[in-house]
Amino acid sequence: MVWPIGFKYTNGFKTNFGIMAMTLAIMMLSFALMSLATARGIHVGTAYAVWTGIGASGTTVLGMILFREPRDLFRLLCIALIVAGAAGLKFRTPTPTLNSPTLHSK
Predict the structure, then answer these.
(1) What is the pTM for the complete model shown?
(2) How does DSSP classify residue 94?
């Protein structure tokens, strides 16, 4: 949820090269952590839904705080629905077992 804010501070990657480099580094870390989650057995669909849900809701809240974006009840309700959906997928998705099919088993 931090790296999308970098787009705002770099004017679409046109200025502030230090922040641009930091944004790219945070992007790479974000991708690496999602990759690690899937490598540890979290289903790719669940991992992606949680990753994007946290990112979308966190970025929206940061936009409200940092850039005075609208904070009406409808937007807050939508953020709550995104978080609830991501949490539901994370906590209700069955854990893979040793006999579950994977990319490596044949």
Answers:
(1) 0.78
(2) P
